[in-house]
């Protein structure tokens, strides 16, 4: 039995010990709870020798890369690089409608981009070392470790279960880094449950809004755009989703809901604007309450909140003339539509 304060002290000491005085660690961050808490912990332990990498895959939510920059780099002081790879991701996703193909493309492209960054960081460290005088002091230290924000339930799952949910974690599958770059895994959260990670985050001064954030899938908005993914479709969904979440927060309901998001349907419906007939796309709103996301109940909103959200989306988002609310529970529906 340990307190969370003891855990922090013990884990920081362990990280310092295994990394040595010069070793560097790289890790992907998404702006989510786990990667942010893991990054902050690494930063406390080894400062700028921890390199956080955020990959902008072109299917993030509105202003998400900027927000991660603000939080991790400006507020928490983490050594962060944001890579805008949206062009590459969107070109590989062109014309793809099948959800599992979207997941695979995004997972593989993520690995390509992340590995390239890891190589860049390592060669920068080598160059600095070459410019030094060869003394022990001027040696810069190599990238030796890969940070993963693995939690205890993931540890259990990967031991006992190799079913379909293995594909959910494709974005963690950075095998080349482990094999070719010979990186070793460092997993500071591997003994913790989600609520313990949140408690740890609070102790590490990570703001409550981040610690309480709803989960967001690795493949991002690509699995919430039901047809092919284009920049235009991403923009429409980003706008609708941002209005939806903003109104949920304003109504004080965010923490009452386990996950809420908008989905862009690949159909067109008839509407009317002034004396003009319109023919535009449909947004579906999803909100669920759930303990573990294995089962979930659809969330019962006060009607006036839905009314305000619908009116704002149809008025403010060009290309949308209709909003529906998803009243399906899991099972038989899933939380995501794809
Ligand atoms: P489903 O749709 O399976 O969602 O009921 C359960 C939870 O898992 C998330 N989810 C994903 N997370 N990559 C992720 O990182 C994925 O491909 C993925 N698919 C679903 C979903 O958002 C929900 O929290």
Automatic annotation (TrEMBL):
Coiled coil: none
Pathway(s) the chain acts in: Purine metabolism; GMP biosynthesis; GMP from XMP (L-Gln route): step 1/1
This protein's UniProt keywords: ATP-binding, Glutamine amidotransferase, GMP biosynthesis, Ligase, Nucleotide-binding, Purine biosynthesis
Residues binding ATP: 30-36
Keyword Nucleotide-binding found: yes
Mitochondrion in keyword set: no
Protein role: Catalyzes the conversion of xanthine monophosphate (XMP) to GMP in the presence of glutamine and ATP through an adenyl-XMP intermediate.
Name of the protein described by the UniProt record: GMP synthase [glutamine-hydrolyzing]
Lineage: Eukaryota, Fungi, Dikarya, Basidiomycota, Agaricomycotina
């Amino acid at each position: 039995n340990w307190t969370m304060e003891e855990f922090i002290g013990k884990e920081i000491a362990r990280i310092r010990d295994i990394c040595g005085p010069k070793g560097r660690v790289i890790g992907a961050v998404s702006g989510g709870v786990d990667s942010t808490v893991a990054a902050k912990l690494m930063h406390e332990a080894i400062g700028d020798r921890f390199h956080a990498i955020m990959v902008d895959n072109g299917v993030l939510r509105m202003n998400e890369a900027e927000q991660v920059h603000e939080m991790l780099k400006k507020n928490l002081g983490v050594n962060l690089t944001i890579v805008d790879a949206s062009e590459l991701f969107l070109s590989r996703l062109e014309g793809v409608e099948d959800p599992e193909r979207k997941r695979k493309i995004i997972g593989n492209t993520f690995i390509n981009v992340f590995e390239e960054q890891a190589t860049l960081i390592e060669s920068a460290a080598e160059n600095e070392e070459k410019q030094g005088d060869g003394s022990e002091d001027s040696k810069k230290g190599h990238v030796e470790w890969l940070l993963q924000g693995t939690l205890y339930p993931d540890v259990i799952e990967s031991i006992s279960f190799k079913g379909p949910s293995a594909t959910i974690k494709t974005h963690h599958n950075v095998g080349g880094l482990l094999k070719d770059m010979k990186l070793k895994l460092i997993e500071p959260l591997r003994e913790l449950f989600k609520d313990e990670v949140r408690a740890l985050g609070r102790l590490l001064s990570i703001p409550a809004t981040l610690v309480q954030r709803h989960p967001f899938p690795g493949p991002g908005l690509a699995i919430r755009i039901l047809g092919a993914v284009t920049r235009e479709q991403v923009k429409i969904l980003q706008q609708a989703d941002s209005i939806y979440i903003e109104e949920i927060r304003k109504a004080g309901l965010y923490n009452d809901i386990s996950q809420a998001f908008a989905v862009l349907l690949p159909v067109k419906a008839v509407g009317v604007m002034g004396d003009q007939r319109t023919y535009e796309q449909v947004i579906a709103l999803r909100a669920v309450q759930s303990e573990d996301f294995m089962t979930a109940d659809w969330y019962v909103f006060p009607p006036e909140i839905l009314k305000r959200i619908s009116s704002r989306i149809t008025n403010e988002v060009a290309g949308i003339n209709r909003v529906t609310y998803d009243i399906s529970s899991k099972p038989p529906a899933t939380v995501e539509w794809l």
